[in-house]
Amino acid sequence: MRDKKTSYIRLLHASPKAPAVDVYANGDNILADDLSYGEFTPYLPVMPGTYTIDIYPADNSDTPILTKELVLPEKTIATIAAIGELPELELFIVEDPKEPLQPNTSKIRFVHLSPDAPAVDVIEPNGSILFKDVSYKDITDYLSITPDTYTVEIAPTGTDNSVLFVPNIRLLPDAFYSLYAIGLVEGDPYLQLLIPLDGNSYIET
Questions:
Q1: CA distance 205 to 54
Q2: Digit-coded pLDDT (tens) for 12-57
Q3: Is the backbone peptide bond immediately before 189 cis, with ω within 30 degrees of 0?
Q4: Where does the DUF4397 domain lie (predicted)?
């Protein structure tokens, strides 16, 4: 049985061109082993408190590429993303808030983690704008939407110059999703959209 104060975190490697990494908390507690770009860990139960996070290249614990202190409140559900381009790596926290969800609906939001992309709009093929003028490191509010299969395009705000086309996004009922834009508009790895199920869909705190 979990402590009533338990929090839950997952890690996301969203730093373009960075190698696979190992992530440690408070010295020797490993949170992620050989986490590659674009990958998430499962949600991990952790106690609230202050943590020192060290990120190393996978299988090389000589010198961390990032050391950061992280304060985690109790009963939090969150994704902790490694973002930015080396050597300006940083940790970015995306909390999964508990909020009402009407039966047989889904909720989606957009998280802009592409370091060289301008502010963007997320658009449906019919021209309907789901999210508008979202800048790097912005997290939108959740939007209620009918469960279905969707196609979206991402374009610099105010233009129809699509930089990413994503078909066949299947949204199930009674669930929360985040659309994470990662990668680079100019260069490799190119811009892509990660669409995980958020922990607030099924984790009780």
A1: 26
A2: 999 999 999 999 999 889 999 999 999 999 999 999 999 999 999 9
A3: yes
A4: 7-122, 126-192
Q: What is the pLDDT of residues 57-107, one digit of tens each?
A: 998 888 999 999 999 999 999 999 999 999 999 999 999 999 999 999 999
Q: Which two tokens stand for residue 45?
A: 């139960």
Residues whose CB is less than 8 angstroms from the CB of residue 185 and which lie 6 or more positions away in sequence, other chains included: 114, 116, 117, 118, 163, 191
Residues 77 and 158 in one domain: no
**What amino acid is encoded at 187 in this protein?**
G
Considering the domain architecture, whether residues 127 and 185 belong to the same structural domain is answered as yes
CATH number, domain of 48, equals 2.60.40.1120
Assess contact for 40 and 107: CB atoms under 8 A: no
Same domain, 132 and 187: yes
- Is 193 part of any domain? yes
Q: Which residue in 47, 45, 35, 46 sits closest to 11, CA to CA?
A: 35
Q: Print the domain residue range for 61.
A: 7-95
